[in-house]
Amino acid sequence: MNLAGCVILYHPEGDVAEKIGKYVDSVEKLYIVDNGGGEEVIRRVTEAHHNVVVLTMPGNMGIAYPLNRVLEECQKAGHTHLFVMDQDSVFCDGSLKPYIEAAANLNWQNILTVAPCPVLGYMNVGQIRLCETRAVMTGGSILQVANALKVGGFNEDYFIDEVDFEFCYRGLLQGFKVGIFQGVYIKYMVGNLQIRHLFGKIIKVLNHSHIRKYYIIRNRYVTYWKYRSIDKQDFYKQYVTGSWEMLLGVLFFEQDKLRKLRYMLYGLMDGIQGRMGFRA
């Protein structure tokens, strides 16, 4: 397995350079994509490590477009696999090395992507085993480059949100498998997550910005109607019920309610009318 890595920066805050330093030497080459504001992190990482290639975007190009450019660079450079990280995510202690080793031992002929288990806190490494699943998040995932390109790469119409799940669903329908490794863990930063109770139910309040609410609702609508045949009951719960819960979270718990509600409506209307891509 000739493994390259990738991380997309967008106005990074905090110890992002230190987080990158924990995995940069685990890959042959690390592609750092600068979507804006990443200059200081890039300076620190490139001063300390010499296997880094910087791809500077003309502005915020979202997630799908940069990932496709990196896949193309990997193909040119002969990298067979791509390890993708979010700027804020970090592997739990002891998880990264056995995860990469386990991935290297797979027969990748019909595998599109694998990922570690996402957690909100820290977990100790357990017994590692691969389980088939329907979709995984991009952060921490390892892609087989040729298979990723074969299914068409990432859908640039989505810009951000649902980019990873749509990629996996498309791969499933083309006969590829998606896997998640039990026993190895990656810690995610999910917005400004708060757990609240409403009408006897637990509501996850993410406190995303109004523009993120737009992309979430629009892309959920499009994904649900395009791929619900995979599992109608579960997709209804994930996409329809999940969107109603997000609406309740905005109404009862989040700030900037009116603007967020307005952009959620814009997202729904654009999804219905098929208006995709970047929204100013």
Helix content, binned percent: 40-55%
Number of strands: 11
Q: Mean pLDDT score, rounded? A: 95
SSE class: alpha/beta
Features:
11 strands; 40% helix; two-stranded antiparallel ribbon; 9 helices; alpha/beta; nine-stranded mixed sheet
Written description of the protein model:
The protein is α/β, with parallel strands linked by helices. It has nine helices and eleven strands. The chain has helices at residues 16-21, 39-48, 64-77, 96-104, 145-150, 163-173, 210-227, 232-252, 257-273; strands at residues 3-9, 29-34, 52-56, 81-85, 90-91, 111-119, 129-133, 142-144, 177-187, 194-198, 201-205. Strands 1, 2, 3, 4, 5, 6, 7, 8 and 9 form a nine-stranded mixed sheet that branches. The chain has a two-stranded antiparallel ribbon with strand order 10-11. Helix 7 (210-227) packs antiparallel against helix 8 and helix 7 packs parallel to helix 9 (257-273).
Architecture blueprint of SSEs:
Blueprint lengths: L2 E7 L6 H6 L7 E6 L4 H10 L3 E5 L7 H14 L3 E5 L4 E2 L4 H9 L6 E9 L9 E5 L8 E3 H6 L12 H11 L3 E11 L6 E5 L2 E5 L4 H18 L4 H21 L4 H17 L7
Parallel strand pairs: 1-2, 1-4, 2-3, 6-9
Antiparallel strand pairs: 4-8, 5-9, 6-8, 7-9, 10-11
Helix pairs in contact: 7-8, 7-9
Write a brief caption for the model:
The protein has 280 residues and is α/β, with parallel strands linked by helices.
